[in-house]
Design brief:
66% helix, 4 strands, 14 helices, 390 residues, Tetrahydropterin Synthase, Chain A, alpha+beta, four-stranded antiparallel beta sheet
């Protein structure tokens, strides 16, 4: 006799065990009943003992059914736990297959990158290849990669999420470490996030940069024009050697400011020279004066040297200015002479007008003389000579 257990969705092994147990108990109960019936027939046992045996078998069967129910509940719980465990194992297997190579690379390089960190990078959208490569390079270069105060995985992830160039700052820190230039991760990250090329800054500190003054690419001019006190123009091309000042890289002035300051100092020093011969004989007088002014203050660079690459004598600006001034003076004198001539002509015309006026007045006066004589004769104030003789 078989008992099909279909109330719970159990594994086949559990179902088979339960069915075997129930079939065994039922078979034992039926065997007991047969044995009792045989004893009744053989030994004249009372018929009342048979119902008692049946009651005992029924109780045993109920207990087995209860055990089957408990076993089914435990099986469901075990199945759920097994499913969760299998899911976790599958997830771990997936991530291990995907990032196992990176983790093994970091482990063999003593880069201190855990598999949990790689899984976290997967969900935070961080490129684990960049982080692992940066940690491996740092560890192999002898940098501090501890989680407390070194180049930790968390700090690299934060810089990556902030939009920084992780590999660029690692290269810069390694180069600075090799050159014994003090540069920590926080300073390099700040320079990188500020928009400066930290690797180029370190390379410029190790290998100084040469800047042309003036820079044809920026101003379009190839020489600086300055005039000495004797009026001679000098055309100068200088080369400025600078290296990066990492402490003032953030907020410091750029190359344009350095070029402008150097150009201004060169023009000023040449302008204070008495003669262009002095400058041609001692070009280093310009560089000494320029370097003494501290032109690299508040800039991102430190001036190493200033060299005069070329000096050409230009025009005699003083003579040309004097010629222009003389011509201007001549024009002024001509204008003044022309004004005086015009004034003289005007005054001559005025004199002629006055002469004509005086002549007219003289004619009028002469016309009054006969009239006055006639009046005098009529009045007897004038007598003729004949009347005086008589």
């Amino acid at each position: 006799m078989n008992l099909a257990v279909s109330r719970f969705d159990l594994p086949p092994s559990v179902t088979m065990h339960i069915e075997n147990t129930v079939n065994h108990d039922i078979f034992s109960t039926i065997s007991s009943v047969d044995f009792l019936s045989h004893n009744v027939a053989m030994e004249s046992v009372s018929v009342i003992a048979i119902p008692s045996a049946l009651s005992t078998a029924s109780a045993s069967l109920a207990g087995e059914v209860a055990m089957i129910g408990q076993a089914g509940t435990r099986g469901v719980i075990a199945l759920g736990v097994s499913a969760v465990v299998l899911f976790l194992i599958a997830m771990l297997g997936f991530f291990f297959i995907r990032y196992g190579k990176l983790w093994f690379q970091a482990y063999m390089s003593v880069a201190d990158v855990s598999l949990i960190s790689l899984i976290r990078m997967h969900f935070t959208k961080v490129n684990p290849n960049v982080i692992v490569q940066a940690k491996v390079m740092s560890a192999q270069a002898g940098l501090n990669v501890s989680r407390a105060n070194g180049i930790s995985t968390r700090r690299l992830e934060a810089h990556y999420l902030a939009g920084g160039n992780v590999m660029n700052i690692i290269h810069a820190i390694i180069a600075a470490h090799r050159a014994e230039i003090p540069l920590d991760f926080d300073q390099a990250a700040a320079i990188d996030l500020a928009g400066r090329d930290v690797l180029d800054a370190v390379q410029t500190s190790v290998y100084p940069k040469v800047i042309d003054c003036p820079d044809p690419a920026r101003s379009g001019k190839t020489t600086l024009s300055a005039i000495t006190k004797n009026g001679i123009e000098l055309r100068i091309r200088a080369r400025v050697t600078v290296r990066t000042n990492l402490e003032q890289l953030i907020g410091g002035a750029t190359e344009d400011t350095v070029i402008a300051r150097v150009g201004e100092a060169i023009i000023s020093s040449i302008g204070s020279a008495a003669s262009h011969f002095d400058v041609l004989e001692n070009p280093d007088m310009i560089t000494r004066v320029v370097l003494s002014r501290g032109l690299d203050a508040q800039t991102a660079f430190e001036i190493v040297s200033i060299d005069i690459a070329d000096i050409d004598v230009g025009e005699n600006i003083g003579a040309r200015l004097q010629s222009d001034q003389a011509e201007a003076d001549t024009r002024v004198a001509r204008a003044q002479a022309e004004r005086r001539r015009a004034e003289a002509i005007a005054e001559e015309q005025q004199m002629k007008a006055k002469v004509a006026d005086n002549r007219s007045q003289l004619v009028l006066a002469e016309a009054q003389v006969p009239m006055a004589m006639a009046d005098a004769f009529r009045a007897g104030r004038i007598t003729s000579n004949e009347n005086r003789g008589s």
